[in-house]
Here is the input.
Amino acid sequence: GISMARGLNHYLRHYCHASVSWCGDNLASIPDTLPAVGEPVHIEASQPLRYYLNYCTYSYSMAFWGWEEWEKEIDRMALQGVNLPLMAVNSQYAVWQNTLKRLGYNEKEISEFLPGAGYEAWWLMGNLESFGGPVSQKFIDRQTDLQQKMLRRMRELGMAPVFQGFYGMVPNSLKEKFPEANIKEQGEWQTYQRPAFLDPNDPLFDKIADIYYDEQEKLFGKAVYFAGDPFHEGGQSEGIDVKAAAKKILQAMRRKTPEAIWIIQGWQRNPMRELLEGLEHGEAIILDLMACERPQWGGIKNSLFYKAEGHMHHDWIWCALPNFGGKTGLHGKMSSYASGVVFAKNHPLGKNLCGIGTAPEGIGTIPVVYDMVYDIAWREDSIDIKDWVNQYTQYRYGKADPNCNRAWEILSKTIYECHNEIGGPVESYICARPSDTIKHASSWGTAEIFYDPAEIVTAWECMYNVRHEFAQSETYQYDLVDLTRQVLGDYAKYLHKQAVNAFYRNDLKRFQTYSSKFLALIRDEDKLLSTRKEFNVGTWINQARNAACTPQEQERFVANAKRQITTWTNHDSKLHDYALKEWSGLMRDMYLPRWEAWVDYKLALLRGETAQEPDYFQIEKNWVDSDTRYDSTSTGNAISAVEEIYKKYFIELQQTYKNI
Here is the structure.
């Protein structure tokens, strides 16, 4: 089924010049009489496994989805040739609920362990418990039914879903139920108390594992692949025989499923060498989660995640991780997507490569990246980027066009060819907490531009020149709006710098000029983004509202959704703005008030008044707590909105960048 779907995708793209994506579909170009193929076309996958998803994707993008969204997503997976999707996150509520009941937990105790919708990913990775909850029984049942439906469709198509394995993560309260067991506290993750860790070498581990796998199979049927990461992002292994623990975790999987394979995330120091030494070849597959920019596998020594031993004797999958937190922004490393897998499989340390995949923390952006990564999975040689991009624009927009080709050629050499290892898009100052000096908006991101913003303006001009020809194209509209958003975000950095310089020169008039321009740009961008539902905060918030099963749960889910993209948690922490979004509604009602407060503060100082720096967390919290309703639909015409911005900014941008 997957090969058939991938074949259909090839036919749609290269014979009908049509395509589907999260960011608009181009199906109008399919002719009434379907084109003949002519000579038969035979294409084989270069690797047996095509992996997809990340734990975080479920929380940052899919937390509140229903069948309507999932049916389309599974179709997109199949068209790309994905046969190994991560299914560990969507509904583990019922599995844990049933498991804990058999361990003597009552409903209240179980509820205190389960997190709220939107935070399941970090629960299952052993980072937190309870936060954002509770969830209702109706919602647990809804998610269970949804997952069963999803699994039926995936299996019909020939996919092998990856289930959540039991690796020792347990409630902290388990220590009270089984005081004799070797249950280790795991400390904190980003101010959260982690769940406890049950030593796999303790007899209680086998008991719980057997219950867990029994309950999971009752609900969701059999699986071969199981994911789970002990000691993820700083979990504590002191006092545990990690090598022996690895053997025990795998044995527990294989008691129920003798052919089980353990899927392990290659991220930071995970998996540690001792864990890999406890497993034989064929028992595990390592996901090199960010092989595109921070490979672990050992072939690129200057990588932040470099391991001299690579993945040792284990099979592994080369993954691209192009997005953290679902942030908006153009980003990629096309040279890596085009040839990284070919380089790896021909390298001595890459010989156990068995698959290609993507592991984004958030989806719904930069569709070009996923098309290129999954294309390399169906060929033996590297991609010629210029030739590939020309084919991409043809099926993305319905026909070949020199202006679109030129725009994408520029983008492929600049913003889609990232020069740093930070990963994810360059962050917008608009989405950053106001400050005189901004190096990043999120604690682990970067706002420092590595490309020439003038070249992005040139690409914008090329795309803009054919706006009338492609005005009815959904995909063109989306890309033009997204590129315009990028141009404005880049220019905001310049305006901010000029305002700050004016402040330190004590130049009130100049500060007023540039700070006013900066605030006006935020309003202009908000209006632009309102023309596409993909850039509308109401789409996200209303998904949360509609997923809830009680009025109280609706209030919690909406708060979870709003908190996740702003403060992330319920107190001020380093996690703020981690999942920043340039979305209409959020721009005008949260980012704009933050910057207005900063401008007012600076103006007061320039006038010699006594002033206190604003409490930005309180502004964020006010937005999370507000009852403002947002529509999920678009407002206005995208092409007209871009024209208005182009006429206002284009000449100014050209002159500005020419003089820098």
